[in-house]
Structures are given as structure tokens and as C-alpha cells.
Amino acid sequence: MLPYIELATNNYQEIISDCNGAYCVYCLQKPIITEDSIIEITDISTVICPLCNVDAIVPASKVENFKQLALWHELGFGLDSLKKQLESILYSIKKNNLINVCI
Ligand SMILES: [Zn+2]
Description:
Blueprint: H1 5-8, H2 12-17, E1 22-24, E2 41-42, E3 46-47, E4 57-59, H3 66-77, H4 79-95
Antiparallel strand pairs: 1-4, 2-3
Bound molecules: zinc ion (ZN).
């Protein structure tokens, strides 16, 4: 079983009570999920990512660092998918001039 599946399943309570927020293993972003936000739920209480519509949200406190999140993505969705997500993150960073990226 994938190491993050338990964290990503029926996790609504854990997600909204994590003061550090949540990360999405699929899009590798940090969607804002609170009791007041309108989010989709599947299974019993599995949170669906509002940014990418994939049910791969984990409580941020359970993620050690970005490397771990990227590794989980690779295990769950494959290396090609990971490369694509990283490219799209870099693209949006460059597009929005959030930081200066030299590649
Ligand atoms: Zn997502």
C-alpha cells in the first residue's frame, strides 16, 4: 500500500484540524481547506483537492518536507507525472514572477 493512502483517506477532520493546513500529493500545492471552504468529499470523508480535483490531500503536519511529498507523488502517480507537475509549478512561478528562477 502507498505510504500516504491512509493520510489521504477519510481525512476531513484531520485536514481541517491541522493548523499547518494541507498538501496535495497530486498537484504538490497547498490548497486552503477550512471548515468554511466549500470542498468536495468522496468515500466517507475523503477530501478532494479544490485545485486539481484529485483525492490526494494529506495533513501538512504529516509531511516532513517537499522531497517527501514529491516521492509520494512518484510512488502514486509515476515519475513522468511528477516531472509534469514540477514543470507546471516552475512555469507558474516564473509566469507570476514570484521568485527569480534560473534554469
Ligand atoms: Zn491537488
